[in-house]
Amino acid sequence: MRPIILAAAIAAILAPAACSKKEAPAPETGPGAELPQDGMTHVSAEGNFAENLQLALIEAEPGETIVMPEGTFEFTTGLSLDVDGVTLAGAGQGKTILDFAGQTGAGEGLLVTADDVVLTDFGIRDTKGDGIKSKDSDRITYQYLTVEWSGEPDETNGAYGIYPVESTDVLVQNCTVRGASDAGIYVGQSQNIIVRDSVAEYNVAGIEIENSSYADVYGNIARHNAGGILVFDLPDLPVMGGHSTRVYDNDIVENNTKNFAPVGNIVAGVPSGTGLIVMANSDVYVSGNRFKDNRSVHVMLTAYTEPFTDENYNPLLNDITIAGNTYEGGLDDPQGMLTPIAAALGGQLPAIMTDGVTRWDGGEDQTVNLVINEAPEVGFINIGLGEYPINPANMRPSMDRPASTPVAERDPVVLPQDKS
């Protein structure tokens, strides 16, 4: 994502705007402690554990549970699972650790291409590529997992920690991801999604919902990322038109880590210090979150900014509701593309900002329904760009909240594998 505003254009903005963190969830005993004894295979730690585990995954039968012992086990190649109905379980997030520091390829640690899979109670560390990826895996469950990269955040870390794509009925719960050079928890081109009770920290993006529909993101902690939570829709992908995401009851705090994404990555443009970004999406409901100490801006609402040729893609926002959140601290050290905007506002941004784009490349204005239903003291600015590509002469900045039509909050997502 390139800068949404040119520094020269910001001079048009003249007036400044006025404008409980909870701890990480206590570790819970995962379902591995109560796994059924029928259809259970215990992977031996004797000999070559990596070979033993991959063989068990290859020979698994539908409905089987593969149990890994406690310990730290080294891998030089990635693992794969393509059998439906398999549960892969360890002894606990901090007890069974699959260490890929010696991985020779650039692939993921574990690739799943099967339905009705449960991944539970283990950790994956230092993969060269993504931590755990699942593709075309319906009714998949990620739970009680830790995926992390050692050391300081680095662009050579794998892009994604937990990475389900092109799937229906995705459940991510009680997971922790650290150090991903793109997104810690990423769900893309999927539908019917729950991401809850998880911690995403020290990633470029903590949690990202991209080109997906019907997602509930709640009860999470997104902290110490460059950007806390992202809801994006991008062009030129098999699935587009992301919509119907609810982001609620999350702690989105201190997302001030330097952006360490590789150059050219779409998230390389996310300003450090951003709590939430909604880009080119529709029917997004953001409520009951606790925004605290994000140094750039708590909420950014923006159209897609790059050139595109896909005639089926809509780069604009529509029906975005921001309501009943709390905002505290931050906003005093805006980074990246936001620096010149803040300079024009006296050095600090309001809690919520939008680019004000309502048309693309000379086209006609479209409805962009932004419902900003926050307390009067919560600061807001509409930069008033009007359209992309940018013409600074057309910019009309305003501190007034836009006229809008209320949007009813949709019903919660219900997943067939969710027994809670």
UniProtKB/TrEMBL annotation:
The keyword Transferase does not apply. Gene3D superfamilies: Single-stranded right-handed beta-helix, Pectin lyase-like (2.160.20.10). Residues 408-420 have a biased composition (Basic and acidic residues). Residues 394-420 are annotated as: Disordered. It comes from the Bacteria. Residues 109-256 form the Right handed beta helix domain. Keywords: Lipoprotein, Signal. Residues 1-17 form the signal peptide. InterPro entries: Beta_helix, Para_beta_helix_rpt-2, PbH1, Pectin_lyas_fold, Pectin_lyase_fold/virulence, SO_2930-like_dom. The keyword Signal applies. This is Putative lipoprotein.
